[in-house]
């Protein structure tokens, strides 16, 4: 059935009530009224890169895009795991080519080296999905001395977007940042990106950097608007993956009966890449609809804080604004 004012209210209530919206009930109900699926074969002849493709939601995103006919470059940080994935997806003959890419997204030197090689091989990209994610138990730093979640969620993807920007096809490509509903609990910290102040918590570092992804995606949306490249951030809901089992086992156990499948977690990302819906700032999506990126007490981001944050990211990555 098509969306009506009543279904829009029901959809928003599911979202604000959190548990029903983020759990598997969300897509079970919303698929009665959400926008149509991408047409079969709609990604034929198109090429998409998916990071964090070796597990959970990333694998499901790759599978969803292959099923629509895309050539999918699956990026992992572990060569053997990435090759195993390519072998499995190729054997399943999901309709198009799968290409292995190996890079540690949090290592800025590795991103530069990999991107130089990739852009030598590929000159047209229709989708770039920043899905790689981590929730570490304690503070650690990357080869360049950056806090891990900042590097994996923010700095690496930012640098990768800049280095691949010329390959994105004008008017026919999309960039998607996989954030998290956990970002609602974190304001934008422009003063302590590296989480050096106060007691470190992996959950808080995760939420802060997932907030940063939403802000960064909105900035990229502005930067690429003239080229009609769609840029979105999204959250997948609560999804049963190895990442959840390993990083937040208590949550995974208690919520097990309500967790979404990886396919449900991947749905909106696949749909965004395949349909490139028109979007307004701040471009945050969940279950095929735009959602607010801030709730209640904080109606919009402070532009001064956003400016300071973006300037620091530019400095850290050596990518001019
Ligand atoms: N599951 C949920 O409920 C949920 C909720 C909100 C948001 N998310 C987001 O959804 C995304 C996928 O999560 P998931 O649950 O599918 O987690 P997952 O099963 O742990 O998968 C994470 C993926 O990211 C990769 N990765 C981690 N660090 C990397 C690095 N430095 N370089 C390259 N790849 C790296 C992992 O590679 P390896 O295979 O080598 O470990 C893995 O493929 C994440 O961004 C996460 O924050 C998930």
From TrEMBL:
Pfam family, one: adh_short
Coiled-coil boundaries: none
Residues passing through the membrane, by range: none
Designated name of the protein: SDR family NAD(P)-dependent oxidoreductase
Organism in which the protein naturally occurs: Klenkia terrae
